[in-house]
Amino acid sequence: MRRILLTGASSGLGAGLARSYAAAGTELGLVGRNGARLEAVAAECRAAGATVRTGEFDVADPGPLGDWITAWQVTAPIDLAIACAGTSGGPAAIGQAEGLALATRQIRTNLLGCMNTIEPLLPAMIAARAGHVAVVASVAGYRGLPYSPAYSASKAGVRAYGEALRALLHPVGIAVTVIVPGFFDTPMTDRFKGDKPMLKSLPDMVRVVRRGLDRRRPRIVYPRLLGLGLQAADLLPAIVGDEILRRVPFHIEPGA
């Protein structure tokens, strides 16, 4: 039986991937903060034939999540772990402060939550010389965006963490995939008020990510052109890149 761990499984990409992987012969470990939404996704996955266990945890709290992951690994190895859990925020407008509470919440959930998910898995995977882990960064991690500085910082950290892990763990047989999505249609994206260039549907994003994971690709960047655009902005002189990004008015409404 294939065993797959997904955080952020109560909505968005995590829920979409859970439904995609749900099938007979698969055991899913689904983690989310919203118990009702998590159980609804779990019920869909069970109806598709999967065996499902759920954990209602905040990935920013390493203790309970790590204990749950470790206990599952005792019963059987986890073949694939996808750290999808995330949150977003930002200042109300250019020139305003984001605030320490909102900024640190994003770092704790997006970056530390990713590490809290992956690190408990690694000793068993290294001992077995097998396994596959995936982390969800963002094109915002290529170049800090003025309307979401802490979100950009957190996703840049996730991207660097995943890239480093891949080089570190390849010699012991563990695959690492860094997922770098642009805008796609989720409730979190609905809170982004402004232009959303190259917006993709959730099913389209799930399809591309699932295909890349099945092929154990080291990176999945989608849409690729948006990723390249932000990489190019980072290569420009800072004053030019800043001016380009300031011309894209944007703000993120408060929310989870």
How much is the average pLDDT?
91
What is the helix fraction of residues, given as a range?
Answer: 40-55%
Total domains: 1
Provide the CATH architecture: 3-Layer(aba) Sandwich
Q: So what's the CATH class?
A: Alpha Beta
Unreliable sequence segments: none
Structural class: alpha/beta
**SSE topology string:** EHEHEHEHHEHEHEHEHHE
| Number of separate strands | 9
Beta-strand content: 15-25%
- Kindly provide the radius of gyration, computed on alpha-carbon positions and rounded to a whole number of angstroms: 18 Å
Total of helices = 10
Gap between N and C termini: 34 Å
- Provide the CATH topology: Rossmann fold
Would you spell out the secondary-structure blueprint of this structure?
Blueprint: E1 2-6, H1 12-21, E2 26-32, H2 35-47, E3 51-56, H3 62-75, E4 80-83, H4 100-118, H5 122-128, E5 132-136, H6 149-169, E6 175-181, H7 187-190, E7 192-194, H8 202-214, E8 219-222, H9 224-235, H10 238-246, E9 250-252
Parallel strand pairs: 1-2, 1-4, 2-3, 4-5, 5-6, 6-8
Antiparallel strand pairs: 7-9
Helix pairs in contact: 1-2, 1-8, 4-6
Describe this structure in words.
The protein has 256 residues and is an alpha/beta fold. The protein has a single domain (2-252), classed as NAD(P)-binding Rossmann-like Domain (Rossmann fold), CATH 3.40.50. It has ten helices and nine strands. It has helices at 12-21, 35-47, 62-75, 100-118, 122-128, 149-169, 187-190, 202-214, 224-235, 238-246; strands at residues 2-6, 26-32, 51-56, 80-83, 132-136, 175-181, 192-194, 219-222, 250-252. The strands form two sheets. A seven-stranded parallel beta sheet has the order 3-2-1-4-5-6-8, with helices on both faces. Helix 1 runs parallel beside helix 2 (35-47) and helix 4 packs parallel to helix 6 (149-169). The chain is globular, with a radius of gyration of 18 Å. 41% of the residues are buried. The mean pLDDT is 91.
